[in-house]
Amino acid sequence: METQLEINRPFAGLGGLFGAAGIAAYAAAAHSANGHMATIAPILFIHAPAFLVLSPLAKLSRAAHSGGLILVLGLLFFIGDLVSRDFAGDRLFAFAAPLGGTLLILGWLVVAATAFRILDYRK
């Protein structure tokens, strides 16, 4: 009997994209002493496997799915603000990085609550 693992394909795809972007940011950081790439790279690279793990978990729990979506928003705001500062010379918008960081913390707390069944509910 063959068991097939159901995954959230967008989360799996984001895991791959975050991993690739993390490696690209590490490469950019190696060629420039200035800018935020040395900060961006590990953040992206840490979240890449997290999204690979979230891809099946998000199929089991709406809370895990919600936590993943919150993490995506947090990464977009936080990383987006740092990239905008490097390439456009200005912030993405006022308080984008702190908002992104706050969303990242919230997203991880939601994922953690899923593990402790605080927010565990089936789809």
Automatic annotation (TrEMBL):
Segments passing through the bilayer: 12-29, 35-54, 66-83, 95-119
Protein origin, superkingdom: Bacteria
Alphabetic keyword roster: Membrane, Transmembrane, Transmembrane helix
Annotated protein name in UniProt: DUF423 domain-containing protein
Native source species: Phyllobacterium brassicacearum
